[in-house]
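Data deposition worksheet. Section B asks for the primary sequence of the deposited chain exactly as it was used as input, without tags or linkers unless they were present during the calculation. Section C holds the resulting structure in token form. Section D is free text for depositor observations; keep each observation to a single sentence. Incomplete worksheets are returned to the depositor.
Section A, Depositor: J.P.
Section B:
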Amino acid sequence: MRRAELIARLEGIPPFAHPRPELEQVVTPSEAAATLLLEAERIDGLDGRSVVDLGCGTGRLAIGAAMLGARPVTGIDVDPAVVEAARGAAQRAAVEARFEVADVRGVQGPVDLVLMNPPFGAQRRRADRPFWDRALALARRSIYAFALEESRTFIARRTVAAKAHVLDVTPVPWVLPRTFPHHTRRGVALGVDLWAIRTDEAR
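Section C:
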């Protein structure tokens, strides 16, 4: 699938209807989601790979992975409303992906690939840590994930501690749209990285 087509299809997956600031429910930009998915396709190939999307929201990464042939695909989120929205989006996109309401800390594996856009920790300090810890425990091959630039040291240390290694860290364009009542500007540019981490040597 060409990048432009993938972006257009991801745009069809709706954002959060009623975003919750305590969960940092902000939409993953379609362009960034496509970049992550195509990087996973380039490095590992998605066809036939088992995938879990931790903190899936309305399902852009999970549904995008299914569009590119990943299977089985599971999305996990603690919010029942967004899980229901993701199920509807997968049905409309005519792809097979399962979505479950759960805390990421209880997710069982392993799976080939973990994809995620976890909380950045803007509302609750260290909100991202359970996601990274679980991803490093679940992925038997690779992790593809977004994080703020200032998280580089933390993620690198967690990766080394898990006996995994970083394949690539790439800055991606990211504009946070006005989402919550305390947002005063229409959009704010954030320094966000796309991480590709190899975990299979740790197994």
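Section D:
The longest strand covers residues 139-148.
The mean pLDDT is 90.
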